Amino acid sequence: MPKRVVLTGNAPAPVGPYSQAIKAGGLVFVAGQIPIDPATGTMPEGIAEQTRMALRNLQAVLEAAGASPADVVKTTVFLHDITQFAAMNEVYATVFAAAPPARACVEVSRLPKGALVEVEAIAAIGGDALDSSRLCP
Predict the structure, then answer these.
(1) 3.30.1330.40, 3.40.50.920, 3.40.50.720, 3.40.1190.20: which CATH number matches 3-134?
(2) Predicted model pTM
(3) What pLDDT was estimated at residue 127?
(4) Given 7, 70, 73, 105, which residue is catalytic?
């Protein structure tokens, strides 16, 4: 199964040896997106605005891969402070309102560039990415 690197200028450029996303076999694996505005290189203040920006970046990468938030099947949210979960979740719910994806949310001691939140995702596009005949009965 060949893989394709996804890269867009509408999200922050990778700052290391990784891709914004990899598209392979009907799946899109989006690297963690932090809340850096790709136009200015700045980061907004506060968990709500940072979540909003991180999700905008995530959406930009998804769109570059031919996907959308509706195609996302799994996310992982990394929070610098888990007590900010409710504020993050309120913004997150505006993007993933209908049929929200499976999600894990964990508190971490530090995030790149001092961000308060980072979001990564897996999306399934182009019909069923999984062959159900290969699943355990």
Answers:
(1) 3.30.1330.40
(2) 0.91
(3) 57
(4) 105
Pairing of strands 102-107, 72-79: parallel
- Known catalytic membership, residue 105: yes
52-82 confidence digits (pLDDT tens):
999 999 999 999 999 999 999 999 999 999 9
Q: What is the mean pLDDT of residues 35-39?
A: 97
In angstroms, the CA 32 to CA 11 distance is: 11
> Assign residue 15 a region: left if phi > 0, alpha if psi is -120 to 50, beta otherwise?
alpha
**Helical axes 47-64 vs 85-95, angle rounded to 10°:** 30
Lateral strand order in the sheet of 3-6: 3-6, 21-24, 27-33, 117-124, 72-79, 102-107
Q: Which amino acid is it at 128?
A: D
The domain spans of the chain are 3-134
